[in-house]
Amino acid sequence: MSKYVVTIVLAITLATPVVYSDNSTMTKHLKVLIASNDLPVSGVKLLQEHFTVVQNRFSYYGDDEKVQSQEECLKLVPGCSAIVWASSHSITDELLDKAGPNLKIVATASAGYNHCNVDGLKARGIKLTNTPGVLSAAVAEIAITLMLVTARRFTEWLQQVESGKWVNGLDKYLGQDIRGSTVGIVGFGGIGQATAKRLAGFEVARIIYSGHREKPEGKALGAQLVPQDDLFQQSDFIILSAPLTNETRHMINRSTLGKMKKNAIIINVGRGDLIDQEALYEALKNNDIYAAGLDVTTPEPLPADHKLLKLPNVFVTPHIGSGTERTRNEMAILAAKNVINALTGKSLITPVLP
Ligand SMILES: *[C@@H]1O[C@H](CO)[C@@H](O)[C@H](O)[C@H]1NC(C)=O
Ligand SMILES: *[C@@H]1O[C@H](CO)[C@@H](O)[C@H](O)[C@H]1NC(C)=O
Ligand SMILES: *[C@@H]1O[C@H](CO)[C@@H](O)[C@H](O)[C@H]1NC(C)=O
């Protein structure tokens, strides 16, 4: 009897390397560029298991190392089969041309792809993937955070704490409730829906959303599709979680701000250019609306002396929506898996351009 067991065990042991053949030797010659020095290690390691990875030594987020990182990308990209884009800067035609005919896919470690030169990629037949889904919860948490800190006037309160002069009192610096409010969500995709889900405990009166069509998930979340103008007119909180496109650019402008309630609070976790910032500044300064909480601005970083930052009714965070350890790792791994699939003939997990 035991002889059979030994034989079976032996057979399985010997068979194992054959069944799970490691294909990485077949792809190791393919070169993959990581366009920034800050992709979480989990994603870098996964790519290194399959490919020859070249990585930008510079950060590619703000302006500090922009020139060096651009130059380094141009230097490293020739012959690459894939680029993992971990940058808010735009993908240039020059970079795509420098890459040459090997380039099959760009995987951006972001949900938004307004900076990814979709026209340029399409023209060259290059695939594009993004990382939606995995970041919805983290961004929704920041949307809720910004609702709370703007409704409860944190900018002013924190100034008082810093100065040591508290003007506390039963009728001083009163904020407003989320309870009983109408929350309008512009862009009811993953982030918008995750935000609605998280509002479930806040006893809001209504959740409404705008968009091209009714979303099947809306009903379960107690959210109702309304025309965009109705949303602007009726909402106490307006949450922007729409992608930036030609259609949505400056959707918050003088005209739409003029339709809002005096106590309206605008939260932007989408992209800075959804808002005409000059018009927003005027509306906030004149108290035409109550406050704004912005995780995204134009430009980023917003200069420290920017006039928006001098207003008492603005709270700005430096584009940290997806910035948790877990989420950034999941984004890096999803981007890496998309690259692996693209270069091994499998279907993309989260395609933008399949
Ligand atoms: C290895 O390659 C073979 C043939 O291309 C494929 O069928 C198999 O799924 C690959 N295995 C892995 C683990 O990717
Ligand atoms: C957006 O507008 C720009 C400039 O007007 C144009 O070049 C581009 O093709 C437009 N993109 C789409 C997707 O319509
Ligand atoms: C203002 O936004 C609305 C809808 O968001 C749009 O229809 C209108 O064209 C915009 N106006 C300007 C001047 O951008």
Outline of this structure?
The chain is α/β, with parallel strands linked by helices and 354 residues long. It is built from 13 helices and 13 strands.
Keywords:
354 residues, alpha/beta, Rossmann fold, 2 domains, seven-stranded parallel β-sheet, six-stranded mixed β-sheet, 13 helices, 13 strands, elongated, binds 2-acetamido-2-deoxy-beta-D-glucopyranose, oxidoreductase, glyoxylate reductase (NADPH) activity, hydroxypyruvate reductase (NADH) activity
Ligand types: 2-acetamido-2-deoxy-beta-D-glucopyranose
Annotation field: number of helices: 13
Q: CATH fold name of the largest domain, please?
A: Rossmann fold
- Number of strand segments: 13
Q: Walk across the major sheet and give the strand order.
A: 8-7-6-9-10-11-12
User: Helix-strand pattern, N to C?
Assistant: HHEHEHEHEHEHHEHEEHEHEHEEHE
SSE class: alpha/beta
The overall number of domains is 2
Rg for CA atoms:
24 Å
Name the CATH homologous superfamily of the largest domain.
Answer: NAD(P)-binding Rossmann-like Domain
Protein name: Glyoxylate reductase/hydroxypyruvate reductase-like
Domain D-isomer specific 2-hydroxyacid dehydrogenase catalytic: 39-352
Family: Belongs to the D-isomer specific 2-hydroxyacid dehydrogenase family.
InterPro entries: D-isomer_2-hydroxyacid_DH, D-isomer_2_OHA_DH_cat_dom, D-isomer_DH_CS, D-isomer_DH_NAD-bd, NAD(P)-bd_dom_sf
